[in-house]
Amino acid sequence: MLIIGVQVLRAQHANVVWNTPSRNSSESMPCGGGDIGLNVWVENGDLLFYISRSGTFDEHNCQLKQGRVRMRLTPNPFAVKDGFRQELKLNDGYVEVACGGAVVQLW
Hints:
Layout: H1 2-11, E1 16-18, E2 29-33, E3 36-43, E4 46-57, E5 63-71, E6 85-89, E7 94-99, E8 102-106
Antiparallel strand pairs: 1-6, 2-3, 3-4, 4-5, 6-7, 7-8
């Protein structure tokens, strides 16, 4: 019975998919595992992500971000909102952002 239940859970499509870009970092998608983590989002046609690492706490026990990266592509495939897709691939552990024929994968 347990084996059948596990197979059913693995067969379900549980990836998180967004069809519109984010307004700001509060709508970011988490990515990572282990020691390094990312918060990924597309804002105003730019692909942005925060980088974090486990064990980086301040005096108030809040986890700090190590930095923010902004990717601006030319020509910009994310400027067009039609066909936008951002997906968290849970089984493989990465975020895929696709729009305008371009695909970006972040691990």
